[in-house]
Amino acid sequence: MIVTAKPRPTGHPGYSEVLPRVPESAEVARRLVRIALAAWGQEELIEDAALVITELVSNAVDHSRLSVIRVIVTRPSDTLIRVGVVDRTRAIPLMRMDSNGDNPRGRGLLLVNAFTHRWGTDLYPWGKQVWGELKCKDGS
Predict the structure, then answer these.
(1) Are 82 and 131 in contact, with CB atoms under 8 Å apart?
(2) Would 122 be classed as within a structural domain?
(3) Structural domain of residue 26, as residue ranges?
(4) What's the predicted TM-score (pTM) here?
(5) What is the DSSP annotation of 2-19?
């Protein structure tokens, strides 16, 4: 399946896009992250933020129950970038601490934890947002 959604700014400062709940949406999410961070002059965070959004999209693809997810990239303060994925399940993700054997799956939140300043889950009556925040390198 080819996902061809184009990022559209919603609000200031923030970017958001509804995407199909398919693995190919990770590439569109990374593009949205690259566009937002370049617009904010935070190019040095692009690789880390792209890795984080990829893991969050992957978790939503694996565990959500509806056919769409929403990817959000915001700037909650002058010093933070937040990337998140909203889905329609209220199941709170848990960070695996075991090795999970030879299975490479199931370690995404360990990466999110390693590459973010902090991360968390916001619950809503209809679902949740899992997000990670990265600190801006230069404070701008």
Answers:
(1) yes
(2) yes
(3) 12-135
(4) 0.85
(5) ------EE-STTEEEEEE
